[in-house]
Amino acid sequence: AQSVTQLGSHVSVSEGALVLLRCNYSSSVPPYLFWYVQYPNQGLQLLLKYTSAATLVKGINGFEAEFKKSETSFHLTKPSAHMSDAAEYFCAVSAGAGNNRKLIWGLGTSLAVNP
Amino acid sequence: DSGVTQTPKHLITATGQRVTLRCSPRSGDLSVYWYQQSLDQGLQFLIQYYNGEERAKGNILERFSAQQFPDLHSELNLSSLELGDSALYFCASSNGYLSTNEKLFFGSGTQLSVL
After folding, report:
1. How far is CA B106 from CA A43, A64, A71, A96, B90, in A?
2. What is the pLDDT of residue A100?
3. Are A64 and A57 within 8 A, CB to CB?
4. C-alpha B30 chain-centroid distance
5. Cα atoms in the 13 Å half-sphere on the side-chain side of A88
């Protein structure tokens, strides 16, 4: 069965430090992969998505993610954290075949940025 | 602003009651998705409608039902409410039929509290 695992439900970094949020997936078919962000009291919004065009995907707000098939990973990174990056981050994989394709969501990682 | 409108923003009710959550998708989007978000379960997909027809079903309880109307707005009906139904309910929309590599646009959610 397809699944998404986000390692670490809470991550804390200092302002200006590297952000690394981990996501591993399992899928029996080539996956589409997504990172969404949820700011406090808001709905989720798309950060970036991987659709097999390029393994390194650049998203909004300086975030990027690299698809590594051998490691079944799609980790999210940002070189320098900003206070405004504090939010909940969700990794998702589009799984299944044909009309049975669905989005499978990770449990989320809460990112805290310390001054 | 995602363009997806959810009402009401907050709902407080008692066990055993019935409530209706409403969602207006982004202009031009034909698909509507309903999600439940809670601390212990994370983001759970409930159901998807496409152009008035049910397209996919997730972990939706029998006490819950939904529909999409000709003007494409959708309603999620929750009945015989239990304490455990307290959660944030999100609606999302997309243009197409499958949520494979499409971008989902999320509303700000309805916070349901069952007392």
Report:
1. 5, 21, 30, 22, 7
2. 67
3. yes
4. 14
5. 18
Lowest mean pLDDT among A73-87, A97-111, B8-22, B81-95: A97-111
Written as six digits, the tokens of A74 are: 């799609």
Strands (E), B15-114: 19-24, 31-38, 42-50, 53-57, 64-68, 74-78, 87-94, 105-106, 110-114
Rounded CA-CA distance A113/A16 in Å is 9
Q: Which residue has the higher pLDDT, B34 or A29?
A: B34
Q: How far is B100 from chain A (nearest CA, A)?
A: 5
Q: Which residue in A85, A4, A105 sits closest to A38, CA to CA?
A: A85
Give A98's pLDDT tier (boundaries 50, 70, 90).
low
Q: Which residue has the higher pLDDT, B15 or B101?
A: B15
For chains A and B, CB pairs below 8 A equal: 51
* Statement: residue A41 has pLDDT above 90: no
Query: What is the maximum alpha-carbon separation in chain A?
Result: 47
Distance CA B93, CA A51 (A): 19
pLDDT over 70 percentage in chain A? 91
Q: Which residues of A touch B92 (CB under 8 A)?
A: 43-44
Tell whether A54 is within 8 A of chain B (Cβ): no
Exposed (0-12), middle (13-18) or buried (19+): which is A2, by Cβ within 10 Å? middle
Interface check A82 vs B, CB under 8 A: no
